[in-house]
Amino acid sequence: MSDAKEMFIRASETVPEAEAGQMFGKPCYKIGGKAFVCFFQDEMVFKLTGDAHARALALDGAQLFDPSGKGRAMKEWVQVPFTYRDQWTTLAGQAAAYVAG
Predict the structure, then answer these.
(1) CATH number, domain 3-100
(2) Could you write out the DSSP letters of every residue in 20-40?
(3) How many angstroms separate the CA atoms of 42 and 52, rounded?
(4) Mean pLDDT, consecutive 10-residue segments, the chain of 101 residues?
């Protein structure tokens, strides 16, 4: 297992009610059946809104999540590089709060 995937699992499991699942065939974690994080291309993807979304998207190399690669990005989802793995747990918590709220 890659370091990135291991960090994805650790960050996601800090949310007590998180359940492992799949989204577009990729590993994800859900709350109440709604995905809040996903693992894609050794990076973590977060469903965010407001200031949390803006801060995540402002990170160098972060981008809107486009799982198809066809220019159809999912506007609430931000793909954050492994470089920022120290922020993944915080971002997972913010994404979980958004989805649960």
Answers:
(1) 3.90.1150
(2) EEEETTEEEEEETTEEEEEEE
(3) 21
(4) 92 93 94 96 97 98 93 95 97 97 87
Q: Dihedral angle at the C-alpha atoms of 23, 24, 26, 27, nearest 10 degrees?
A: 10
Distances (CA, A) of 47 to 1, 2, 26, 29, 42: 24, 23, 15, 11, 17
Domain residue spans of the chain: 3-100
The owner of tokens 């159809």 is 72
- The pTM of the full predicted model, rounded to 2 decimals, is 0.94
DSSP 69: S
Strand order of the sheet with strand 26-31? Answer: 19-23, 26-31, 34-40, 43-47, 74-80, 63-65
